[in-house]
Specification:
The complex is a heterotrimer. Chain A is 70% helix and 5% strand. A two-stranded antiparallel ribbon of chain A has the order 1-2. Chain A has a two-stranded antiparallel ribbon with strand order 3-4. The radius of gyration of chain A is 26 Å and the shape is globular. Chain A starts with a helix and ends with a helix. Chain B contains nine helices and no strands. In chain B, α3 packs parallel to α9. The longest helix of chain B has 29 residues. Chain C has eleven helices and one strand; from the N terminus they run ααβααααααααα. The chains are: A mainly alpha, B mainly alpha, C mainly alpha. At the A-C interface, α16, α17, β4, α21 and β5 of A face β1, α3, α4, α5 and α9 of C.
């Protein structure tokens, strides 16, 4: 057996052990044991991914009792990259779960679903054929549904979210199944290699492509199939939201890459255009909703839509540029896509885990009721801050590296002669630039309102720092965000291998996009920044000797009045100017009630301000659709009146009908 | 005139035309819009004169001077007189779609203009032809203003911009229409504007405002 | 070497630029003004004063000002103001420069939030809204400039300008420079976006954020913001008038470059101050229109650079 085969088998075995431990271990050891085993599943996945990316090969066949080909696990470099990402996220989330899981989330089935979920996420990219892919995909869907529903007994919104999630995730499964089945029926085989022989220009390929794109886009949370994302993330326990957002959602991106790079390579131009359009709309819509959101986890959920949007945008640009005479820039765009995947996994893990720590410490999810947590939860504050820097793509985080690569590919992809490129590129640049700007505001809001200023509620005022295992996981995630931001070379080499781009000379410290002549040495930027900070800090400490800092008990605030904490800016008011700017896109509902004093109309007693934001896509697309389905269902119920004779009659009629059809 | 200087001058005129069109969409103040329209008139005149000098055609230069007088001086003056001088609230525009959206639409329209004119530019590599999309963009933006503005004077401005765009395209592709035709069109425009000016005056006395969104019963 | 010199020149000159702008404004308004050196005197005074730290503030209030100044220093080192020979291993890549600049923006916004006062939050919110809308414009417009030059390295763009100075009149560069100017004005909090002289509560943006800082913290914030202004104005003027910048490193060329830079800064600062006298501050909710306009201009510039300038 090769190392890869050992790794694959090890994952399965460890996951099995994890499930067993969750179901059978004594109550006291259950959470810890499952957590450790889940972390080991992640380690196995990540290591296998690294071996595959360094050229390792292997193949694991599992025979089924069905009269079909055996299911094979045979990861390629692309799959290896996603295995690495999923595994790394799994490790951190599992370590976190040891300190975090309690209450309903510690129930046996929920606990058992977690290692199964992690293993399924690593098996999806490892799958070498349609059957194993679908099996792993379904396992991932079911296990995550169980996890989302963990707290269904105590919170009503969890049940609703679970329904949405189960519905959407199975819609995605069915579409993918149909798409792959269409290809398989046409090609007469189930392994990726056999499917890849399809002619990408044929009508079958086009139909399959559309089905697969919608299916994977649903999993990736792209607009307009994103509606489950902002619901499922707040409903799920935080380590699950972290794993779902950082790894599971990107499996949708893996699926799209699988289709365009492996199954239907060299497809017609509109393949790429579809991806660019989906990605651009999702990126802008996601970040707009995120910037206006005031629930921390909803904010992060929408920001996931933004990030997957950017990934898919990069993938689409990569396809277009490869075909339109700029292969160097095209490779850079695909590289950017994978770097975005990795960076999103890193910072979103840190952010979701941080949000979980804040949630369980303060009991608040509403940003408007937080504040001042930085003093009480310093570790969480710093790690969340690092994650926020990554999400805002600022140096020196891995988010910055990814965004830099994307922008470089866009600049060097300029093809003045080509009409399509000439339209797509400016729009893409505008989209990337706009999302970058809005992401900045969103994450300053998220971090600043949560951790700075004074507590806006009782819960926030009495919050305590998270327990040790959670802190370890948080620090780990933040370290990856900064570490990869400083030394992105190895990651870039792996990503190069994954998209089968001619390997560029990337050393550990630098990213070199050799074919488009662009270099980024984050360490140099960090050194320059560090030097400058050291210089100013040295000056400051000299000055501090003459004039030491003096503590006062009152902020100035234009008058030094002891103002109430409710007079501070909240998340809603922070985003208010921006929401006004994008009024027509967001359409918030505002209620202002002013009650006057009895004596005079000019004296105001109270002002009530309520603002609610509804997802416009949901209101305009899904609500009418669901209403229609409900009406059809109501009509359908009429044929079902409970009479046993009628049901027997239906069966009889069906039998006769079948016989008639058969004898035709 | 050396070819590169010619190309630069045409490019400059095109840039000013495009810039002034965008700025007209951007500014709300009607008097500023009129001023920008005058700048646009000068830029067209400049363009025509440059073309005339390049082709050593006296006729084009004369047409250019005519354009300068008409679009750069007379029409803006007429428009300015149509502006309400006294009523402060009426000096500003309240467009049907907000300015931000209008600006983004402007950008997209410009892109469209470049796209539709791509075949034209395939025919000829001359710098004059490279500026054609700007003319088309102006016409489209003019239409956008016509469709989204409520003030009668803005309607006029949109109309004039539409005409400016068409004139620009005509000059750039055919090196100008025959002198007589240009003269006729210019007089037509002048007449239309004068009639509309009178009309705006009537509307104002009738409705007390120049907001055309009041005019909703435009059927028999 | 060039970078260090640039940082020194910018540090020395930026308070003078502010002083000059204030003096020009004062003279045009018929006042005497405090003199060109006043910002330097302010800095010296703040340096010697003890900073106050209100209860409930975190380390962000201490680290934020330092970060802002540090980011300005790095930006001053990376931007080609005196010479086109950048730092080894650290090219003045546009995206790097912009993101380092944003690092300072974020630091300032967090400082505004830290004390938990109404005004701090207000300033921070407005500041970030403006920054969120400015960033796309900056990226787009310099992107438009970088397409003809074929590189996103700023010194490369400046060098391309030096080779072909007439290209400043092309539609791409006119549109992009106008957009960039608006973006710079907004980013540095000048009129009509923010009134740097105001302390009227409801109109403050920048001043609202720095209300709670005092002593050397305030000095770092002020110097950092002034440096941003000088660097961005210097970059703008270099893009319009590239002459004087040193393409090779020698004492004479550098001396010439310093003189040229100071002259450009004087002219552009004087010009800006003169224009500012004639402007009133825009209502906050009109600012997005202004920025959307500059965004549209930048977008047009990119479009034009793809479609007009055929290689």
């Amino acid at each position: 057996m090769t190392a890869v085969e050992w790794g694959l088998a090890g994952q399965l075995a460890l996951a099995g052990l994890g499930v067993l431990a969750a179901l059978a271990a004594p109550a006291r050891a259950r959470v810890g044991l499952t957590g450790v085993l889940s972390a080991l599943v992640g380690v196995a996945g990540a290591v296998t991914g690294i071996v595959v990316l360094s050229g390792g090969q292997g193949r694991l066949s599992l025979s089924t009792s069905l009269p079909l080909d055996p299911m094979t696990l045979e990861p390629t470099a692309l799959g290896g990259f996603f295995m690495l990402v999923a595994g790394a996220v799994g490790v951190v989330a599992a370590v976190y779960s040891i300190g975090y899981v309690h209450g309903a989330a510690a129930a046996r089935p929920v606990l058992a679903a977690f290692p199964a979920f992690l293993a399924a996420m690593q098996l999806v990219p490892a799958a070498g054929d349609l059957l194993s892919f679908l099996a792993a995909w379904e396992l991932m869907a079911v296990a995550s549904t169980v996890l989302v529903l963990a707290e269904h007994a105590s919170r009503a919104e969890v049940r609703r979210a679970g329904l949405w999630y189960a519905g959407m995730t199975h819609l995605s499964f069915v579409l993918i199944l149909l798409g792959l089945a269409l290809l398989a029926a046409h090609q007469g085989g189930t392994s990726w290699a056999e499917l890849a022989t399809a002619d990408p220009d044929s009508a079958t390929a086009a139909a399959a492509y559309l089905l697969l794109v919608v299916g994977f886009a649903t999993k990736a949370g792209l607009v307009p199939f994103h509606v489950w994302l902002p619901r499922a993330h707040p409903a799920a326990p935080s380590h699950v939201s972290a794993a779902m957002s950082s790894a599971m959602v990107t499996m949708g991106v893996y699926g799209l890459l699988l289709v365009v790079v492996r199954l239907l390579p060299g497809g017609p131009t509109w393949f790429g255009v579809v991806l660019v359009a989906l990605g651009a709309v999702s990126a802008v819509y996601g970040i707009l909703q995120a910037s206006a959101a005031s629930d921390l986890k909803v904010l992060l959920g929408y920001s996931t839509t933004e990030n997957t949007g950017l990934m898919v945008l990069a993938a689409g640009i990569g396809l277009l540029l490869r075909e339109h005479g700029a292969p160097g820039a095209g490779d850079a765009a695909l590289l950017a896509c994978l770097l975005l995947v990795a960076s999103h996994a890193a910072f979103k893990t840190a952010l979701f885990l941080g949000a979980g720590a804040v949630l369980s410490a303060s009991g608040q999810r509403d940003l408007d009721r937080m504040g001042g947590l930085g003093m009480r939860m310093p570790v969480t504050a710093v790690t969340f801050g690092v994650g926020a820097l990554g999400a805002a793509a600022l140096p020196v985080t891995v988010g910055f590296v990814a965004e830099w690569t994307l922008l470089q590919s866009l600049i060097h992809g300029a093809r003045p002669g080509d009409r399509l490129i000439a339209v797509v590129m400016p729009v893409a640049v505008a989209v990337v630039a706009l999302t970058a700007g809005l992401a900045l505001l969103t994450f300053v809001k998220a971090a600043g309102i949560t951790f700075l200023a004074r507590p806006r509620s009782e819960g926030a005022a009495t919050a305590r720092e998270a327990p040790r295992p959670m802190q370890v996981a948080l620090v780990l995630a933040a370290a990856v965000v900064v570490g990869l931001g400083l030394l992105p070379g190895q990651l870039a080499t792996w990503a190069h291998a994954a998209v089968e781009a001619p390997s560029a000379v990337s050393d550990t410290t630098a990213i070199r996009l050799a074919r488009i002549d662009a270099v980024l040495v984050p360490l140099a930027v960090a050194t320059a920044l560090g030097l400058a900070v050291a210089l100013v800090a040295a000056l400051a400490s000299t000055a501090a000797r003459q004039a030491p800092r003096r503590a006062v008990d009152l902020a100035w605030g234009c008058g030094g009045v002891r103002s109430s904490a409710r007079m501070q800016y909240t998340a809603t008011s922070y985003a208010e100017p921006l929401v006004r700017v994008f009024d027509q896109a967001l359409r918030p509902q505002r209620d202002v009630e002013i009650s006057h004093r009895d004596e005079s109309r000019y004296l105001v007693e109270q002002v009530h301000f309520r603002q609610s934001l509804h997802d416009l896509v949901e209101a305009r697309v899904y609500d009418p659709l669901l209403g229609f389905v409900m009406r059809v269902g109501a009509v359908g119920r009429r044929i079902q009146n409970g009479s046993i004779h009628r049901y027997l009659g239906y069966s009889f009629a069906a039998l006769v009908l079948v016989l008639v059809v058969v004898s035709w | 005139m050396s070819p590169s200087v010619f190309a630069q001058l045409v490019g400059l005129c095109a840039a000013v035309l495009l810039l002034s069109s965008v700025l007209i969409v951007w500014r709300r103040s009607l008097s500023a819009q009129v001023r920008l329209l005058a700048v646009q008139g000068w830029a067209i005149a400049g363009l025509v004169i440059v073309l005339g000098l390049e082709e050593r055609s006296v006729e084009l230069v004369v047409v250019g001077l005519l354009v300068l007088v008409l679009k750069g001086l007379v029409l803006p003056r007429v428009l300015r007189r149509a502006l309400p001088q006294d009523a402060a609230p009426e000096r500003e525009e309240t467009p049907l779609i907000n300015t931000t959206a209008a600006l983004i639409a402007t950008a997209l329209l410009t892109m469209l203009a470049y796209l539709v004119s791509a075949p034209l530019r395939g025919l000829d590599d001359a710098p004059a032809v490279a500026a054609v999309p700007v003319g088309i963009a102006m016409a489209l933006i003019g239409f956008l203003i016509l469709a989204t503005r409520t003030h009668a004077v803005s309607q006029l401005i949109g109309f004039l911009m539409l005409d400016n765009g068409i004139a620009t395209v005509a000059f750039l592709t055919a090196s100008g229409v025959p002198f007589v035709v240009e003269l006729g069109v210019s007089l037509d425009i002048l007449l239309v504007v004068l009639i509309l000016q009178v009309l705006t005056g009537r509307i104002r006395t009738q409705f007390g405002a120049l907001d055309l969104s009041e005019l909703t019963e435009l059927r028999d | 070497m060039v970078a260090v010199l640039q940082v020194l020149v910018v540090v020395a000159a930026s308070p003078l630029v502010i002083g000059l702008m204030r003096t020009v404004r004062a003279r045009l308004e018929g006042r005497v003004g405090a003199g060109v050196l006043q910002p330097w005197r302010d800095l010296r005074k703040l340096w010697g004063k003890e900073p106050l730290r209100a209860e409930g503030t975190t380390w962000v209030s201490v680290a934020g000002p330092i970060t802002l100044l540090a980011s300005s220093l790095v930006v001053a080192a990376l931007t080609p103001l005196l010479g086109t020979a950048g730092l080894a291993g650290l090219p003045g890549d546009l995206f790097v420069v912009v993101s380092v600049l944003l690092l300072g923006t974020v630091a300032l916004a967090l400082v505004g939030l830290d004390a938990g006062t109404a005004f701090g939050g207000m300033g921070s919110s407005r500041h970030m809204t403006i920054a969120a809308l400015v960033e796309p414009t900056v990226l787009l417009s310099v992107y438009a400039l970088s397409i003809p030059a074929g590189t996103s390295v700023l010194s490369g763009i400046v060098r391309a300008r030096l080779d072909d100075p007439v290209s400043v009149l092309s539609p791409v560069s006119l549109l992009a420079l106008l957009a960039l100017t608006i973006a710079v004005v907004a980013e540095t909090g000048r009129l009509p976006v923010d009134n740097p002289a105001t302390h009227l509560e409801l109109t403050m943006v920048h001043e609202a954020m720095v209300l709670e800082t005092s002593g050397r913290d305030l000095a770092w914030l002020e110097l950092g913001s002034w440096m941003r202004l000088s660097v961005l104005l210097g970059l703008l003027s270099t893009l319009v008038v590239p002459w004087g910048i040193a393409t090779e490193v020698s004492v004479t060329t550098l001396a010439l470059a310093v003189v040229a830079l100071l002259a450009k800064l004087t002219v552009i600062a004087g010009l800006l101050a003169t224009i500012e006298v004639t402007l009133a501050k825009l209502r906050l909710f009109r600012i997005p229109e202004l920025l959307a306009g500059s965004f549209a201009l930048a977008f047009l510039a990119v479009t034009a650079s793809y479609l007009v300038v055929q290689a």
